[in-house]
Amino acid sequence: MLKVGFIGLGVMGKPMARNLLRAGYPLAVHNRSRGPVEELAAEGAKAAFSPAEVSEQVEVVITCLPDSPDVELVALGPKGIIEGIREGAIYVDMSTISPVTTQKVAKALAERGAHMLDAPVSGGQEGAINGTLSIMVGGPERAFERCLPLFEAMGRKVTHVGGTGAGQIVKACNQIVVGMALTAVAEALVLGSKAGVDPEKIVEAISGGAARCWALEQRAPRMIQHRFEPGFKAAYHYKDLGIAMDTSRAFEVSLPASGLVYQLYGALKAMGRGDWDHSAIVTLIEELAQTEIASG
Amino acid sequence: MLKVGFIGLGVMGKPMARNLLRAGYPLAVHNRSRGPVEELAAEGAKAAFSPAEVSEQVEVVITCLPDSPDVELVALGPKGIIEGIREGAIYVDMSTISPVTTQKVAKALAERGAHMLDAPVSGGQEGAINGTLSIMVGGPERAFERCLPLFEAMGRKVTHVGGTGAGQIVKACNQIVVGMALTAVAEALVLGSKAGVDPEKIVEAISGGAARCWALEQRAPRMIQHRFEPGFKAAYHYKDLGIAMDTSRAFEVSLPASGLVYQLYGALKAMGRGDWDHSAIVTLIEELAQTEIASG
After folding, report:
1. Residue A177 three-state SS
2. How close A261 gets to chain B, by Cα (Å)?
3. Predicted confidence (pLDDT) per residue in A264-288, tens digit
């Protein structure tokens, strides 16, 4: 079996690494704080003390980190993955970061004879725990095929979407659609509710037709009940929409509606609600209308 | 069986009236142009020559008209429904119009002892022909119950959402979510495509998760292939979002994202594309980015 390394054992990374361990892969692990490392070591993983120490002993090294600068540091910084990585080995970045950073890291690793896949996920902590993530993979076909069994141990839907960076671009597309659908449902519920209609009735009446979407089915109930424990944090969605903005600038694309929704999530974060679920965008729309959704 | 009248035999009204006729209801019909009247008369309907001539002979009179001024004219104008309507009769308006107009018409009819239901539909011409419309009904409970068999002859999902005007308000909510989801999918596909990813791959990768929606499943293929025969015309969606705007003003609600999408549909109409399917919003986003989506 492939020898695998995993760096970044946070809310997403730890359960993903655990699923690889359970699938039988020999696993070296590293994390800035040592708690999760010791936890996984107790379950059979090998503890490492730097990214380079992970990469020098494995054929595939995976990261799952918060943002672009973290990936750049862990991959290319001092004692980074690049210092230990073997020729022919594969670096798989499962973080959600800028495709521009992905390109830069891939280029640096290529000079050492290593390959890179960008493989961001969606499906949240629940998907990470249950191994039901959607995984969007960019990078060379052969590297994708070698890593497919690993992806299948962590996710349910794995799609190879194109060359280096394509996974990150598709993830940005995903976050645009999700953020805008949440905003649409929020505006619809606030309008209908302030105009005197029971929001539960709105959801019931429009769910069957062209308005049907995950945001309406899975998040309208939270909006109506004001239950905003995450889920997926608004601050992360703001960060992800920022990646979409960076990408739109890099490729000269103008996204008027995505840009507006990005700014609304920025306001939500500024209001101190970055740690709430992203469906809390409804609270901003409520405040603009000086109302609160109330179920009849 | 209830004696029914139907006024407004357009793209939607004619097949809806036909479904009532097929369900066995005695039906009086009227339309400004006479072609559809004669067509339905040949199938067993009774031709009338004014709205008043319809309303004086039936227990339930239905309209399906383009916009608020048309409803006001047909209901309250010279030889209008109000001139013939019987005490205790029910007027059902299945047009998509402003809830403010609905309130006004209902009030005028109440003074004549008649009741009103607002019952806009979604599901398009196909739903009208097949009797599979979603129908969102506002108005008094007893009137709703009397008309329910009629609605069930025309639609599949019938929801009583509240008092007078509530049907129109929920329809406005529906059009907000649909218009914004279409715009979201358009922006995602243009970004991804210009950044070099095959748009078919984007749809495939994100359809299974939180981005899933009718717009992605049913309209992304049209966007990619540039097939914009309606469907549902962009000019109608612009009109419907205008109703949402009017409603937001009437109830003091601020809808930043819906307002932007409204303006984008206004631009699409100004570009001469009002007769195209509403998914043609992608052509506007393409032009902003000076690109065309191209499938790999």
Report:
1. helix
2. 7
3. 999 999 999 999 999 999 999 999 9
Query: Could you tell me which residues are beta bridge partners of residue B136?
Result: B159
* Cβ contacts of A134 on chain B, cutoff 8 Å: 205-206, 208-209
Q: What is the pLDDT of residues B198-236, one digit of tens each?
A: 999 999 999 989 999 999 999 999 999 999 999 899 999
Q: Which CATH architecture has domain B4-164?
A: 3-Layer(aba) Sandwich (3.40)
Which DSSP string do the residues of B204-249 spell out, in sequence order?
Answer: HHHTTTTT-BHIIIIIHHHHHHT----SSBHHHHHHHHHHHHHHHH
Residue of B162, B170, B184 with shortest CB distance to A181: B184
A255–B191 C-beta distance less than 8 A: yes
- Is the CB of residue A75 less than 8 Å from the CB of residue A81? yes
CATH label, A169-289, candidates 3.40.50.1480, 1.10.1040.10, 3.30.70.1450, 1.25.40.20: 1.10.1040.10
**Token digits of residue A131:** 């191994």
Testing the interface with A: which of B151, B170, B248 to mutate, by most A Cβ within 10 A?
A: B170
Q: What residues in B contact A264, CB-CB < 8 Å?
A: 256-257
Which ipTM did the prediction report?
0.96
This model's pTM is above 0.90: yes
Tell me the average pLDDT across A97-119: 97
Across all residues in chain B, what is the average pLDDT? Answer: 97
What is the pLDDT averaged over residues A78-84?
A: 98
> What confidence score (pLDDT) does residue B296 get?
57
Strand partners, A159: A136
Q: Are the C-beta atoms of A61 and A7 separated by less than 8 Å?
A: yes
CA–CA distance from B5 to each of A66, B1, B75, B135 (Å)? Answer: 63, 13, 13, 18
Q: Per-domain residue ranges for chain B? A: 4-164, 169-289
- Residue pLDDT, tens place only, B280-295: 999 999 999 999 997 6
Contacts of A257 in chain B (CB under 8 A): 180, 183-184, 187, 257, 260-261, 264
Distance from CA of B186 to the nearest CA of A (A): 9
DSSP calls for B85-141: PPTT-EEEE-S---HHHHHHHHHHHHTTT-EEEE--EESHHHHHHHT-EEEEEES-H
